[in-house]
Design brief:
Radius of gyration: 20 Å
Helix content: 25-40%
Shape: globular
Order of helices and strands: EHHEHEHEEHEEEHHHEEHEEH
Number of domains: 2
Strand content: 5-15%
Largest sheet: 7 strands, mixed
CATH architecture of the largest domain: 3-Layer(aba) Sandwich
Structural class: alpha/beta
Number of helices: 10
CATH superfamily of the largest domain: Type I PLP-dependent aspartate aminotransferase-like (Major domain)
Bound molecules: pyridoxal-5'-phosphate
Length: 353
């Protein structure tokens, strides 16, 4: 706290990202990065972008990327917004749709950035409890609200809602914007993008950080009807006209154009997730059904915080949230087969019994 700060800064409660350890030998299964790496075509497109053209500002509209994403999702380019990671896209959506004085609704267990944006923008919010199996009950959201946001699949549980349930959610709150954060949808879910033409209150956000293995590039997007996209553009152009640099725009567009790499690597993650779930269950873990590139698991006889610390000593990093209801769970990203093996070998060594 300093006399130079604007008064509200002392009250901010910032997001705490998962550890990015400096030791490269660690088996890193804590931030849901994709172990397969980005499309080689995307890497080549980024290399081609490095040169004299970097003296010029990038395209502020991101037109080529919007066209590539629109072609992939089967929408029009004016239904696409692009930003510096979906975190930035979400921030603009909170400001643009949820700062209306009425409470925003989101699950009690969800992406921990949502309450942070509420704090930054002064948005009142209410959390809605997941059921005892850690599932979202869409009926519980049919009550007065100034907006709804949820991740599908949810984070950090990995549990998936069907498109029929998303539709019931949209129908229950036709006068507020419903943001569906689909950071993990490509690992087994059905995207709600197919609903945007029928629901003017739906905004779907996506990221290239997980299924396209470009977390380091910082590219995210939103898809909705053009008037929702226009609000995001107005905010973006009041904040930073160039959130995506030339390298990011080139790499992200090429990533959408390479379906073969994308589909092959998503399928590999799904297959290894299923294998990992079976092995963890064999060690006595209870594992929530996951449609994401991570699993959420607890052991009935071992404290999760202690397990995470013991794994760290064996060079395996997983995520543990010191939060009510989920303090006994570990969130484990699906890694390469040898990384998953290292995790399972370390757990085996603890004689979980
Ligand atoms: C990873 C993640 C994001 C953020 O993605 P970026 O595009 O890397 O900013 C958003 N929502 C959820 C639920 C996530 O897990």
């Amino acid at each position: 706290m300093s006399k130079f700060w604007s008064p509200f800064v002392k009250d901010l409660v910032p997001y705490v990202p998962g550890e990015q350890p400096k030791l490269s030998r660690l088996v890193k299964l804590n931030t849901n990065e994709n172990p397969y790496g980005p499309s080689p075509l995307a890497v080549a497109a980024m290399r081609d972008e490095i040169g004299d053209s970097l003296r010029l500002y990038p395209d502020p509209t991101g037109e080529r990327l919007k066209r590539a994403a629109a072609a992939y999702y089967g929408v029009r380019p004016e239904q696409v917004f692009v930003g510096n990671g979906s975190d930035e896209v979400l921030a603009h959506a909170f400001y643009g749709f949820f700062k209306n004085g009425r409470p925003l609704l989101f699950p009690d267990i969800s992406y921990s950035f949502y309450p942070v944006y509420c704090g930054l923008y002064g948005i009142p919010h209410e959390t809605v409890a997941l059921d005892e199996r850690f599932r979202i009950r869409v009926e519980d959201y049919a009550r007065p609200n100034g907006g709804i946001i949820l991740a599908n699949p949810n984070a950090p549980t990995g549990c998936l809602l069907s498109l029929a349930e998303i539709e019931r959610l949209l129908q229950g709150s036709p006068d507020s914007v419903v943001v569906v954060d689909e950071a993990y949808i490509d690992f087994g879910g059905e995207s709600a993008v197919t609903l945007v033409d029928r629901y003017p209150n739906l905004l779907v956000t996506q990221t290239l950080s997980k299924s396209r293995s470009l977390a380091g590039l910082r590219v995210g997007l939103a898809i909705g009807q053009p008037d929702l996209i226009e609000a995001l553009e107005r905010i973006k152009n009041s904040f930073n006209s160039y959130p995506l640099d030339r390298i990011a725009l080139a790499g992200a567009a090429a990533s959408f154009e390479d379906r073969v790499h994308f589909e092959r690597t998503c399928q590999a993650v799904i297959a290894h997730r299923e294998h990992l779930v079976g092995e963890l269950q064999g060690l006595g873990f209870e594992v929530l059904p996951s449609a994401a590139n991570f699993v959420f698991a607890r052991h009935p006889r071992r404290d999760a915080g202690e397990l995470a610390a013991a794994l760290r000593e064996q060079g395996v990093v997983v995520r543990h949230f010191k939060q009510a209801r989920i303090a006994q769970f570990l969130r484990i990203s699906v890694g390469l087969p040898e990384q998953n093996r290292a995790l399972l070998d370390a757990l085996q060594g603890f004689h979980l019994g």
